[in-house]
Amino acid sequence: MSFTEEILAGIYLIGGPNVSHSEDATSFLVDCETDLVMIDTGAGQSATRIEANIRNAGYDPDHLAAVILTHCHIDHIGGAPHFVEAFGCSLVAHDLDADAIETGDPLQTASHLYGTDFPPTPIDIRLTGEENILSFGGLDIRCIHTPGHTPGSISICIERDGKRILFGQDVHGPFLKAFRSDIGAWKESMARLLELDADILCEGHFGIFKSKEKVRSYIESYLKQY
Predict the structure, then answer these.
(1) Strand pairing category for 163-167 and 200-202
(2) CA distance 162 to 40
(3) How far apart are CA 11 and CA 9, in angstroms?
(4) Taking the complete model, does pTM exceed 0.85, yes or no?
(5) Looking at the predicted structure, is the pLDDT value of residue 79 above 50?
């Protein structure tokens, strides 16, 4: 059985531990009117289930214009080859994580931790610098460089219906040498996310937080731990 959750008008949770597969980080669908954009793709085993979730939400995945990958770990990128092959969408990632995805590096993608391989997969759009704005169907999508968990981690910010929704996938870490993690950079990234004063936070593993207070409290709770 497939499940979806509408978070805000035209923004859906379509994948994750309780949605598609236990190994998946969360993935999301954004309706940009003439285009569809996905944020992350799960670990790969459930790609067809996530595709079914898109259809069950009332959308045609043939309209997928892009998949934005928030960082290079397998639980976020594993389904990307399926969606590229099936629908011809573009892949977007930050330049500092793109090489790991393009080479299928087993340590940097963490695929070895899942007992699998990630096939080398080309990135079509390499983000650079502190912030990039991508436009799809008239919707501006802010891709904010938030290094720490990995060098090329990004967070995504969208304005809709008077609300600011933030996709901060692995706010919580973890921070490992094999991931090229940087706690100092992460703290600066979290300060930047707090400045956004988002109304909704969609996190990669621990839920969706719907109020400015809950978003701030969640981020600050991890800053206190480190």
Answers:
(1) parallel
(2) 24
(3) 6
(4) yes
(5) yes
